[in-house]
Design goal:
The structure holds three protein chains of three kinds.
Chain A lengths: L6 E3 L17 H17 L2 H27 L6 H18 L4 H23 L4 H19 L5 H4 L5 E2 L13 H25 L1 H11 L1 H6 L4 H27 L1 E2 L6 H14 L6 H19 L4 H15 L4 H16 L1
Antiparallel strand pairs in A: 2-3
Chain B lengths: L2 E12 L2 E12 L3 E6 L5 H8 L4 E8 L2 E2 L5 H6 L2 E4 L11 H8 L6 H14 L1 H5 L10 H13 L5 E5 L7 H17 L3 E6 L2 H7 L2 E6 L2 E7 H6 L1 H8 L2
Parallel strand pairs in B: 3-8, 3-9, 6-7, 7-8
Antiparallel strand pairs in B: 1-2, 1-4, 4-5, 9-10
Helix pairs in contact in B: 3-6
Chain C lengths: L1 H31 L6 H17 L4 H24 L7 H23 L14 E2 L2 E5 H23 L1 H11 L1 H6 L4 H27 L6 H15 L4 H21 L8 H15 L9 E3 L2
Antiparallel strand pairs in C: 1-2
The chains are: A mainly alpha, B alpha/beta, C mainly alpha.
């Protein structure tokens, strides 16, 4: 028998199925949150505004990972590479081609989309741990590639590139940080709405069918290879836009800002936010930005340990992430209404 | 005769969904009982509830001892062997390793070797293939292996979940003959869940019919077989 | 040609490190079906414990044995306290748990023993082996110990009842419970064994890379890579994978222009991935056929 050495298993999907409707927030809740985000900068300090901007940027990157993992069931530890690609594309275009910062973002997205799509092709044959290792290699390689000598003219080598921080347009009377906050907010909303619609579309259904059962999906006529690479491309593209935004907001890019640690942080953001639950991406992003600072303030020497303990507490309490909190809250509200 | 297994008011749940609605039945020591029912009636769930593999309420007593709160492996250690649906073959291991696994809770090393030999007598095909990977066996052979593996426990009670599933009729007949022999000669009490009602009723001495999570009929297998309703719904003539 | 042979030899020497770690990786993968990202840190911590024991005056071999026992118990304890409660949580949540454990162990070791590098002794000596400058007696000893562990594990899994039960629990937990195997404890046992094997790896690696809290970062990555290359279901494959990765890496660094030290890791990984594209279950692994 030729199959003598093969195991046959009916494997449960690694990523839990999240029904489409459960992937988003209701319209009312969304509008309340949006309103809160619009007025907050008026009341807080510039540094807090900057941090909130970073939460949104990381949120976009986590959302991109969520589309890949929560949507299509593929796993990536290489998101930092696409983020770096986007950041460098924006920075190089702004510094070397004097391009307007806003115009660099679509290009950053396209470049990263292309890279992700191309990477997704060979990655098609890999799943689970093997895919994790492949994407991990990408994440490890990227900072080294950015340091390469013959690219130094554009990338600034190890030193990186400093970028001009843009002022508010049309002489608007707000500071740079606040302007970039609103700029980022607008893009975040656009990407969020776009992603929600993507997952509700035909392509989104194709992604999810692959996530839940690849063999059954292909039997139903879903072009598995096409959609898997597409999911990789879209995820990389959105990550690239987040990277480009970060280059503009931080006004600096350097190879060592985009190590595997960033990819791991984005992964943690996705787990804490709830895999497959898009609004959770921003909760997760807040976690990975604020909790290390909190840990540092509790104990300088043991900040890593404090962070680890806090992370354990979170996953013990809500193993399904912020999504679980949202579900419980919804049920309680439902009971109150009765 | 005293009841060996006593099930009272068993209710089982999959998440929010209730699958068993207060099921009660008893098995006599040494009996061969069959549990009949259509798809989704709750036959498999009943067996899984006995081994605590599904959330349930109600009382299950085995030889006077309550089973609730015991982990699956501890239920098994009391002498209840469960041949699951789909057979649960350890496909990457050899046939012999599968049999050894059946006796993994036993400490009487010498008898284990003898028991493996006895299984090879019951099922000669397993002896032929004892070094082969279990995954390479045919469906019928895997079912025999599953029964043999369960017997390696030297169980007092054996639960079988649709042993005929996916097997050719001739093989099913063979298998059932062996089950009858095991029941008579080795004094193993057997509860077999079946969709193949005709064969099951020929083999069994007791029968229960289950519909949507409740027992709707019980009694002597011959009486049940001659019952008008059962004939129409399950035997098809 | 001499350059080539020398590089292969040097590759085998570093490969021994990876092989050692890969063996620990496969061990835990067999028991829990995940790659434990904190495994390198656990091994580092064990090595520090043995170092501390020696500082207190315990002789080498006694500290070695004591460390194994402590690591074994520690592995079980970590599983019972931190990961048993996550048994029903999604896979990715478990992975987040490994990352949290990584952060905790690394940070505690840093605070306890600080980040300066420390010398770690070797029982095999570090003179050139058979006159070769590229491979020392320590590295030969390391290869020897790794092979011994491999044989030991093989015997354990093939010929002991508890080894059989562990394999069953890993392969089909539900079926294993139905024959009376306490699968939950098998997982804990797997953690304990992986932790002890990791301790051996750490103790063997420390004389080469020096002892410090970040010593295992790179090694674990290579260990993972080696395990995946060899096939996660095969301890022998993991060890072979370790040597192959070591040789790969050295040859790439020597013969591909512009690679140097910095790009060694990505190139080695890229090569591994290329292999996996053609042989998705690894060189020695078993292919898995999925059913709907």
């Amino acid at each position: 028998m030729s199959v003598a050495a093969e195991d046959t298993v009916t494997e449960a999907p690694a990523v839990e199925a999240v029904p489409k409707r459960a992937m988003t927030l209701g319209t009312g809740t969304s509008l309340v949150i949006l309103a809160a985000l619009l007025v907050t900068p008026v009341f807080v300090k510039n540094f807090v505004v900057f941090q909130m901007t970073m939460v949104m940027i990381y949120g976009i990157a986590v959302l991109a990972l969520n589309i890949l993992t929560g949507g299509s069931g593929q796993f990536s530890l290489g998101q930092s590479a696409f983020y770096a690609l986007g950041a460098y594309t924006s920075a190089v275009l702004m510094e070397n081609a004097n391009m307007n910062y806003a115009l660099t973002l679509p290009i950053a997205g396209l470049v990263s989309f292309g890279a992700g799509y191309l990477f997704g092709k060979p990655a098609l044959r890999l799943t689970g741990i093997y895919l994790a290792l492949a994407t991990f290699a990408l994440a490890v390689a990227m900072p080294q590639l950015l340091k390469l000598h013959f690219l130094e003219h554009w990338t600034g080598g190890v030193q990186g590139l400093t970028v001009m921080k843009p002022d508010a347009p049309f002489g608007l009377p707000i500071g740079q940080d606040k302007w970039l906050y609103y700029f980022t907010l607008a893009i975040s909303v656009a990407i969020y709405v776009g992603s929600v619609n993507l997952l509700r579309s035909r392509s989104g259904r194709a992604f999810m069918s692959i996530r839940d059962n690849e063999i059954a999906a292909s039997a139903m006529g879903v072009d598995v290879a096409q959609y898997k690479t597409l999911a990789f491309g879209v995820s990389a593209g959105i990550t690239g836009i987040a990277g480009g935004l970060s280059a503009i907001v931080v006004a600096f890019v350097a190879p060592d800002s985009y190590t595997i640690n960033l990819a791991i942080a984005l992964f943690l953001g996705m787990v804490v936010g709830g895999v497959g639950w898009l609004p959770g991406s921003f909760v997760g992003a807040a976690f990975i930005i604020f909790v290390p600072n909190i840990a540092e303030s509790i104990s300088k020497g043991l900040s890593g340990a404090v962070f680890g303990v806090l992370l354990f507490i979170v996953i013990f309490l809500v193993p399904h992430g912020a999504r679980q909190v949202a579900i419980v809250a919804q049920q309680m509200l439902g009971k109150l209404k009765k | 005769m005293t009841a060996m297994l006593n099930v009272r008011d068993l209710r089982a749940y999959y998440g929010q969904v209730q699958a068993l609605h207060g099921l009660s039945f008893a098995l006599n020591e040494g009996s061969l009982t069959t549990l009949l029912g259509a798809n989704g009636a709750g036959k498999t769930t009943t067996l899984r509830a006995i081994c605590n593999m599904v959330r349930s309420t109600g009382a299950i007593e085995f030889e006077g001892k309550p089973l609730s709160g015991k982990s699956t492996e501890n239920v098994v250690r009391l002498g209840i062997a469960h041949v699951p649906q789909g057979r649960g073959t350890f496909t990457t291991m050899t046939v012999e390793e599968n049999l050894q696994l059946g006796a993994i809770t036993r400490t009487d090393k010498k008898n284990i070797v003898a028991d493996i030999e006895r299984m090879y007598e019951h099922f000669p095909v397993l002896k032929e293939r004892h070094t082969q990977q279990a995954g390479t066996l045919s469906g019928g052979e895997q079912q025999m292996l599953a029964v043999a593996r369960a017997l390696m426990l030297r169980p007092r009670l054996m639960l079988l979940d649709e042993p005929s599933f996916g097997l050719a009729p001739l093989i099913v007949r063979d298998l059932f003959k062996i089950l009858g022999k095991i029941n008579r000669e080795d004094k193993v009490t057997i509860l077999v869940v079946e969709q193949n009602a005709q064969l099951a009723l020929e083999l069994a001495d007791q029968a229960y019919v289950i519909e949507t999570g409740k027992i709707v009929m019980s009694g002597n297998a011959k009486e049940i077989a001659s019952n008008e309703d059962v004939r129409k719904s399950y035997l098809g003539y | 040609m001499e350059l080539f042979t020398n590089q292969v030899l040097a590759g085998i020497a570093t490969g021994a490190i990876y092989a050692c770690m890969a063996l620990a990786v496969v061990m835990i993968y067999q028991a829990i079906d995940h790659l434990n990202f904190a495994q390198g840190e656990m091994a580092m911590f064990s090595t520090f414990i043995s170092w501390q024991l020696m500082q207190w005056g315990v002789p080498y071999w006694w500290s070695f044995l004591l460390t194994l026992a402590i690591s074994f118990a520690g592995g079980i304890l970590i599983e019972r306290l931190l990961f048993k409660p996550l048994a029903k949580a999604p896979v990715l949540t478990n992975v987040a748990g490994f990352i949290a454990l990584f952060a905790i162990v690394n940070s505690v070791a840093g605070l306890t023993w600080d980040f300066t590098i420390k010398q770690y002794p070797t029982p095999f000596g570090s003179s050139p082996f058979l006159g070769s400058q590229l491979i020392s007696t320590h590295q030969v000893g390391m290869i020897g110990v790794t092979l011994l562990m491999l044989i030991g594990l093989y015997l354990f899994f093939q010929f002991t009842r508890i080894g059989l039960a562990m394999r069953a629990a890993a392969a089909l937990p539900e079926s294993a419970r139905l024959v009376g195997v306490n699968t939950s404890w098998m997982i804990a046992l797997g953690w304990g064994m992986a932790s002890a094997i990791g301790a051996v790896a750490g103790i063997l690696i420390a004389p080469v890379v020096f002892l410090e809290p970040n010593m295992m970062g790179g090694v674990l990555v290579y260990g993972f890579a080696a395990a995946v290359l060899g096939g996660l279901s095969s301890p022998l494959g993991a060890v072979m994978g370790g040597f192959l990765v070591g040789v790969f890496e050295n040859l790439a660094g020597t013969y591909i222009p512009g690679v140097g030290n910095e790009l060694k890791l990505p190139i080695a990984l890229a090569l591994i991935i290329t292999v996996l594209v053609f042989k998705p279950a690894g060189l020695f692994g078993r292919a898995i056929v999925k059913r709907v």
